[in-house]
Amino acid sequence: MIGAIRRGSIWRNTHYILRGANRVGARVSELTGDLKEERLTRKRLAAEDGAKALEEVAKKAVDVRANMARLRALRLAKEAQEARMEISTGNQTNKTKPKRRFS
User: Is residue 94 one of the residues assigned to a domain?
Assistant: First the structure.
């Protein structure tokens, strides 16, 4: 019986604790009520932590999408500016300065 408690989690083997408590005169209903309350408290806290984690993940995803949109807009603006520069330099004729003649 002691080996069973050492091998696993104390919460997995609560029936051993309850059997021992019955021998010393404790009421099983009191102990099971406390265990149920602790279990419910742990579940409630886990659910709250899970909800917080999901909110954080959702917020980070929104932030990432906003940043990607901002960077995409910057990239497109840069590409448009480069295309305008190519068009404007392509339309210009090569104007060379006339050579000076020394008399």
Answer: no
